[in-house]
Amino acid sequence: MAYSLKLNGKDREVQSDAGTPLLWVIRDELQMTGTKFGCGVASCGACTVHVDGAPVRSCQTYIEDVDGAEITTIEAMQDNTIGAAVQQAWVELDVVQCGYCQSGQIMSAVGLLSENPKPTADEIDSYMYGNACRCATYQRIRAGIQRAAEILEA
Q1: Average pLDDT score, the chain
Q2: What's the burial of 60, exposed, middle or buried (CB within 10 Å: 0-12/13-18/19+)?
């Protein structure tokens, strides 16, 4: 079946079966591999993308549920003011260890800063709770979000 999306600002049409997770459409059909498969049950956050501006887990979001929606992946974050600030902070503070979860972490951090430009440490921890990092860089992720908020405020 044909579905229409706006992916990273470009109109796209995809052919997928109903019930196909958005994650696999993005990775397999559209060849955008920055969005990662982690757990498959929306518990780890590695597959986080934005749908109409809100972070969602693409492994449990079905293609038919996003027909006509605007989808943003990690590949477009450098063109987003908040995304660029988060990426800058990640580099400045050397947040990444293995890096596998980081596209999902960044997408969630952008969602948080879009809603709350000056979050407290507790607000960061609460918002980012569903994003797992096997390397346990949670303190660096929190510091990165706080640094991104400073960059955006300047």
Answers
A1: 97
A2: middle
Question: Which residues of the chain register pLDDT less than 50?
Answer: none
* Alpha carbon distance 98, 14 (integer Å): 32
CA angle 6, 8, 12 (to 5 degrees): 35
Express each pLDDT in 30-47 by its tens digit.
Answer: 999 999 999 999 999 999
The CATH number of domain 2-75, selected from 2.30.110.10, 3.40.50.10260, 3.30.300.20, 3.10.20.30: 3.10.20.30
Domain boundaries, the chain: 2-75, 80-153
Three-state DSSP at 30 gives coil
